[in-house]
Design goal:
The protein is 24% helix and 8% strand. The chain has four helices and five strands; from the N terminus they run αααβββββα.
Length: 267
């Protein structure tokens, strides 16, 4: 009778070796494809944020919210827009959505800005809600209304200068004015002369808010939503090329030679 012949040990090991080799070749490609897919999802989410800002400004005659510049976190964009977006998962880039990996703990690229930085309210419409995210709003877009003796807080230098704020959607050049982007802190009063961080997530030694966006979240880029609600990929050095506020002084921006090695190595 015919006797069926099985695999020998040598043949089995050869097959396993070939499979392992193919996996080693394919894994980096699959990982890159996964990162690219998440970057596309991030851009789509920021596009949704453009819709939420549109709904808000339509309801308030084109004006933006104060966004915390009055010193009250309840004025901030994620609090104020909550009735429009509902799903708090949209506060996070798909590459940075774990509240246990916070930027303050060293997770600069993929860390969140909460929840421990911002207390959970025990009363009011957001009572019991924990907020955390990985996007930041350009605070210069805000529409602050300061009272006598009130300041904008310590986050931004000269943040109390009301003439710098865009305040509403009735401005020219909306396609070049940043509104919201990948970041490790939720708001930023960026300036042209802001120091370039020596490492991702640098906090100590600088209050320069452009650093909030200086991360390598999408293979050398971040996603940025602009005031015309378009979304584009932005390289770190390009962050200094946009009019963040009405008095932005482009000549104070750093040159390519002033960027540290960790940024130069990305490109």
């Amino acid at each position: 009778m015919y006797k069926q012949r099985g695999f020998t040990l040598i043949e089995l090991l050869v097959v396993i070796a070939i499979i392992a080799l193919l996996m080693a070749i394919l894994m980096p490609t699959l990982a890159k494809a996964k990162r690219m897919a998440r970057a596309v999802m991030c851009a789509a989410q920021e596009k949704q944020w453009g819709s939420f800002f549109t709904m808000y400004t339509d309801d308030f005659e084109g004006s933006f919210m104060p966004s915390g510049v009055t010193g009250n976190w309840r004025d901030n964009w994620w609090w104020v827009l909550e009735p429009y977006y509902k799903n708090r998962a949209l506060l996070c880039c798909p590459m940075a959505n774990n509240p246990d990996k916070q930027a303050k703990d060293g997770y600069g690229n993929y860390g969140t800005w909460g929840p421990s930085w911002f207390p959970t309210p025990d009363k009011g419409p957001n009572a019991g809600i924990t907020f955390y995210g990985s996007y930041a709003m350009n605070a210069w877009v805000s529409n602050p209304t300061f009272k006598a003796g009130q300041t904008a807080g310590s986050e931004g230098r000269d943040a109390g200068n009301l003439a710098r704020y865009w305040k509403n959607t009735n401005v020219k050049g909306q396609s070049s004015i940043p509104l919201l982007g990948d970041a490790w802190w939720p708001v930023a009063w960026a300036e042209a002369d802001d120091l370039v961080p020596e490492w991702i997530g640098q906090w100590e030694g600088t209050a320069d808010d452009m650093a909030h966006f200086c991360i390598n979240r999408h293979d050398g880029y971040i996603n940025m939503l602009f005031m015309d609600y378009s979304v584009r990929k932005i390289r770190i050095p390009e962050l200094w090329d946009f009019p963040w506020h009405r008095g932005y002084e482009f000549e104070d921006a750093p040159t390519e030679y002033e960027f540290p090695d960790w940024i130069k190595k990305l490109y």
